[in-house]
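Run log, item B.
One chain of 169 residues. Sequence copied directly from the ordering sheet:
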Amino acid sequence: MGYYITAEGTIEMPRSLEDEALHALTMLNYAHEQKRAGSARYPPEYDPFETRWYSWMPPRYHETVGSVTEVLELVGFEVTKTRAAGLDVYTLVYDNKTGQEDVFLNRLAEFAHIVIEVKGEDGAMWRWVNTSVGHPLMEQQGVVQWVDHRTVDESLEQQRGWYNTPMFA
């Protein structure tokens, strides 16, 4: 079970903020209350990293990752990183069940400009976006607007016109 989504977009982060962003992403692993992928019931003295975890993430990911790219890949994104004009530009693609992409992108909004467009398996559309570095990450709902363009007869007439050109004669 689960809800499948496809997503793509970009994260533009000033290079000077990458180390701080990585630190913030690894510190999320201490925010056990935000973890909603799974949990196990153990005695209170048991390791908290083994009792709650983020979707797709190893329980102690914070001890092994060395870059923002690695964290995003563990979250489930395919990541291509390029550099342009003092920015690290991460191009992201996602095609899987939902995990906790929102939690990690929300944390990155403090350090980056983010635009990620998402489409759910049922056709729902939304995007996560902030206006610039440090601004809150917003969830915007996508709306399809249908407008009258022409009648089907007009469309068919135009198609007949194409087939009467010298190319098709």
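Observations after the first pass:
- DSSP finds four helices and eight strands in the chain.
- Residues 152-163 form the longest helix (12 residues).
Flagged for discussion on Thursday.
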